[in-house]
Design brief:
Layout: H1 11-31, H2 37-40, H3 47-75, H4 77-95, H5 101-119, H6 121-131, H7 134-147, H8 150-166, H9 168-186, H10 202-205, H11 208-215, H12 219-248, H13 253-278, H14 283-303, H15 308-321, H16 325-337, H17 342-371, H18 375-392, H19 400-414
Helix pairs in contact: 1-6, 1-7, 1-8, 1-9, 3-4, 3-5, 3-17, 4-5, 4-9, 6-7, 6-16, 7-13, 7-16, 8-9, 8-13, 12-13, 12-17, 12-18, 13-15, 13-16, 14-15, 14-16, 14-18, 17-18
């Protein structure tokens, strides 16, 4: 009699699956936030007021990320994920009770920002990076980030359907319930020791304060951080204001939800491809090309009349480029500074991204309320995308130790015999 054995995933595989589910849920909830702007106008929340909630969410997310990253580095991923999921659920529920801007800003801005910081890329990708061997790290991060975007494809149409059928308050409460479910996926997550080949690097042996001091004087880290500002500026503007822009063009509200869902679907393929390419080619150059290609896609979208076809083509193009930055930026942080303090270092880079998100969302709201259209805001997206490409392309991606050796060699060569 043959013995039948049941298949059980390894601990690493289970961690990757759970990380993917959590990232998928939090990404879908966050990227569907812009769907609530039009219906909330019925209670007197203007485009600027709603934009401030979304911008505050992004800014709080960025300011919280370094702190939450440090907590995850010190105490582990599981408690940070579970606690942040509950904060996210509370924020969405509070937003569902809003009668004016203040409660929306408290729930949808402050609390949702903290919750997303603890359940999003900064914490999840650090966990994935530590769980897999160095030669598979880029591919694993790309796969998790790619599959993690599928939540938008489901939650954006679901959110629009709930808004249309039951109202925006019910949609917010439903989203809060979905956020709370993430606790069930966070509790089984167990991390092992970082999977690095060989002995720890010099960067891994340094205390956090010294690593941060070195990072803040590293020209490559600073250039990448500045360029990441543009990433947040472009993407959050599109995420929040694209549905409103399409309505301004006379297109159906459902097209905005479909576009966000398509972005999530195409992002799955683009981000996975970025992970594969990042393992073989220059990550800094690939990152620069992402900024350039996004900007070209925006120019092409504005150059033709808005139609369902042009919107979906634009959404597909942006989707392929949406989270391609995730495996590339995380790969560069790990390559240059090691993984011991990954959460904190990625957190400060991501803070720049979220400051850009704040500025992009607020620019859209102010421009729309002042002019009745988004023309000047789109022009800002194009200019800042080109600037990001110029900053990222020549990035110095040497480790601090490599930079020190090169500098010592240059000084020695310059000394007279």
């Amino acid at each position: 009699m043959s013995q039948v054995t049941s298949w059980r995933p390894s601990r690493t595989m289970l961690l990757l699956i759970l990380a993917t589910i959590i990232l998928s849920i939090t990404s879908g909830l966050r990227q569907s936030f812009g769907l609530f702007m039009a219906p909330m106008a019925a209670i007197g929340i203007t485009a600027v007021a709603f934009s401030f909630a979304a911008a505050l969410q992004s800014l709080v997310w960025g300011l919280s990320q370094p702190v939450i990253g440090m907590l995850a580095d010190r105490f582990g991923t599981r408690p940070v994920l579970a606690g942040s999921a509950l904060v996210l659920a509370a924020g969405l529920a509070i937003a569902g009770t809003a009668e004016g801007p203040l409660v929306l800003h408290l729930g949808g801005g402050l609390l949702v920002g903290i919750g997303v910081a603890g359940t999003g890329l900064g914490v999840v990708l650090g966990t994935v990076s530590r769980a897999v061997a160095p030669e598979r790290r880029s591919q694993a991060v790309g796969a998790v980030a790619a599959l993690g975007s599928l939540g938008t494809m489901v939650l954006a149409p679901l959110g629009q359907g709930l808004i249309d059928g039951y109202g925006w308050r019910v949609a917010f409460f439903a989203f809060a319930g979905i956020a709370a479910v993430m606790v069930l996926f966070a509790l089984p997550m167990k991390e092992g020791a970082p999977r690095d080949a060989g002995s720890p690097t010099a960067e891994d042996k340094q205390p956090l304060g010294e690593v941060l001091r070195v990072a803040f004087t590293h020209p490559g880290y600073l250039a990448m951080t500045a360029a990441f500002f543009a990433c947040g500026f472009q993407l959050m503007f599109i995420n929040v204001h694209l549905p409103s822009y399409l309505a301004l063009c006379g297109l159906a509200p459902s097209l905005g939800a479909a576009a966000l869902g398509l972005i999530g679907l195409c992002n799955t393929f683009g981000t996975y491809a970025a992970g594969l390419l990042g393992a073989r080619y220059s990550q800094k150059r690939l990152l620069a090309l992402v900024y350039l290609l996004r900007t070209i896609a925006i120019i092409a979208f504005l150059a033709v009349p808005a139609s369902p076809t042009s919107v979906l083509v634009f959404a597909a193009a942006m989707g392929f480029l949406w989270l391609t930055v995730a495996p590339l930026v995380s790969g560069l942080v790990g390559k240059v500074f090691g993984l011991k303090h990954f959460g904190a270092l990625y957190g400060f880079v991501f803070l720049s991204h979220q400051v850009g998100s704040f500025c992009g969302v607020m620019l859209g709201g102010f421009v729309f309320d002042l002019t009745g259209n988004y023309g000047a805001a789109w022009a800002g997206l194009i200019a800042i995308g080109l600037l990001a490409f110029a900053l990222q392309w020549p990035m110095d991606d040497r480790t601090p130790a490599e930079r020190a050796r090169r500098d010592d060699a240059a000084l020695a060569a310059a000394k007279p015999a």
